[in-house]
Design goal:
six-stranded antiparallel β-sheet
């Protein structure tokens, strides 16, 4: 099959998945689901992959309200908020070990003395949104606070009353029931609170959530936890790659949060990490300390041209096209008949990588304008039917190709 046909096939698959979901709306419950999905999209929830920051990768349980406030301030002052990084997400360890006498979750008094509502008000005053964390089990993964299993309605109502905009829902210490059932219960609870809350299912990909999670939430983890290593990034990219046909506006595959700036990889490796996550339409959730981020880190996270690929309104996940000896071509369709391409060198030495127009769905006979997204320049083309670039070890080149 020609690559142009493969891209068409990918698009048709996405349309068919969405159409099949719509055809399932035969009951009142499913009709309500569709109404709720449209409600979220109308409010801008996950129309494109969510962008923001999450506390876990850098801070783990060492969080407090000052950290959240200063991070919100830093997102604004660095210009990252203006580029789309809107969600300020508190991960595990924000709550007391036990619920209050009414059975409600409560913020940990020693670290969040003002409470989550006041923190949400502060974040909202900066033009940003607040995210929070819970678990589809009896306790969260840290075992430091209660999960929401059996308290879904109560907790969803609490989150809405606090002004929460995003819920990351983990998968630890549950009762052994199917995740489809446990995650569905929180989904139904969120629909009833009258507030648009982005629902991110952190099921770790164990029961292939790409096949079912789009019925319940806006994003779902397709993999285990990311680590700040090259090996982790390439492994997770490959795991996430196979689920592309299930993603689209309002529903996104999530290969976990960004490690850019945490210090375990080189700048070239971080550029590759960010480029592939952007191409795969992954949620772009910063995982480093924004307040102390280096200029180089901010340049990677703040590359608007790469971000625009991630936020393209067509919403088709890019995928791996070809790989040999560590030299890979990843590509994805964009709006206005454009194609985004990443030439990724996973090998141990600098090497040329060539992509032909035919294998990414472009005609070899029509002129193509080539934009280098990391050099921020147009490429002078001598070869009319493809592109060759020398790529350093563990680095990538990223382009937008526009037929003219």
């Amino acid at each position: 099959m020609k690559m142009g046909s493969k891209f068409s096939f990918l698009f048709v698959n996405v349309v068919l998945v969405v159409a099949s979901i719509n055809c399932m709306n035969v009951s009142r419950s499913n009709a309500n689901l569709e109404d709720y999905t449209q409600f979220l999209l109308a409010n801008g929830v996950a129309r494109t992959p969510p962008m923001g920051w999450n506390s876990w990768n850098h801070f783990q349980c060492n969080i407090d309200e000052r950290t959240i406030k200063t991070t919100a301030d830093a997102l604004v002052s660095t210009g990252l908020a203006a580029l789309g990084y809107k969600y300020v997400n508190i991960d595990d360890c924000w709550g007391e070990e036990k619920r209050d006498w009414k059975g409600s979750l409560r913020a940990k008094a020693s670290t969040f003395p003002s409470g989550i509502k006041a923190l949400a008000d502060y974040v909202h005053s900066k033009g940003l949104k607040l995210g929070i964390y819970s678990d589809a089990g009896y306790t969260t993964c840290s075992k430091k606070m209660p999960g929401s299993l059996g308290h879904e309605d109560q907790d969803a109502k609490t989150f809405a009353e606090w002004g929460v905009d995003y819920l990351k829902y983990d998968n630890c210490y549950h009762d052994g029931s199917k995740p489809q059932d446990r995650y569905a219960r929180m989904s139904y609870a969120l629909r009833k609170v009258g507030r648009p809350i982005l629902y991110s299912l952190c099921e770790w990909g164990q029961e292939y959530p790409a096949k079912w999670a789009g019925l319940y939430g806006n994003a779902w983890r397709t993999t285990g936890d990311i680590k700040d290593t090259w090996e982790s990034v390439i492994s997770i990219a490959d795991e996430n790659n196979i689920w592309g046909r299930y993603a689209g506006p309002g529903r996104w595959n999530d290969p976990d949060m960004l490690e850019v700036g945490n210090g375990g990889m080189s700048l070239e490796e971080y550029r590759s990490h960010f480029s592939i996550w952007a191409l795969m339409k992954a949620p772009l959730l910063i995982g480093c300390d924004v307040q102390s981020a280096s200029h180089e880190t901010l340049r990677i996270l703040g590359n608007k041209e790469v971000i625009d690929v991630n936020q393209d309104p067509l919403g088709l996940q890019g995928r791996k096209i070809r790989a040999k000896a560590g030299l890979e071509i990843w590509a994805g369709l964009l709006s206005r008949k454009r194609v985004a391409v990443v030439l990724w060198n996973r090998s141990g030495s600098r090497a040329p990588i060539t992509v032909g127009w035919r294998e990414i769905g472009l005609s070899p006979y029509n002129p193509v304008v080539v934009r280098d997204l990391w050099a921020h320049s147009f490429v002078s083309m001598r070869k009319l039917h493809g592109l060759t670039a020398y790529v350093a070890s563990h680095a990538c080149k990223m382009y937008i190709l526009t037929p003219s």
